[in-house]
Design goal:
4 strands; alpha+beta; four-stranded antiparallel beta sheet
Length: 92
């Protein structure tokens, strides 16, 4: 009887963990894609310190450099297209 109960709890735990993983992955994908984003896109994010990041953001056809923390976001500069090396994303 104890073996059956232990097996049931183990299988239940695995199902709950896999379900949570599936929904978390889907939610993350949804947040990164955005709904109907056509004019703005985060191209790249680089962590520079704990809770501090540099962002390359495409707004329309222009690229901009932003710095951000948990509390605020600062505009740094507009980037030249020549200086940006974009890697093509592979659809898979």
């Amino acid at each position: 009887m104890e073996f059956v109960e232990l097996t049931f709890f183990l299988v239940s735990f695995i199902v709950v963990v896999l379900t949570a993983l599936y929904f978390t992955k889907g939610f993350t994908r949804f947040k990164m894609q955005g709904v109907g984003q056509k004019n703005m896109q985060i191209i790249e994010a680089l962590p520079i310190a704990f809770n501090q990041y540099l962002y390359i953001v495409r707004i329309g056809e222009d690229y901009h450099l932003l710095s951000g923390t948990k509390e605020k976001l600062n505009y740094c500069t507009k980037l030249d297209d020549i200086n940006i090396k974009l890697q093509e994303k592979k659809n898979g």
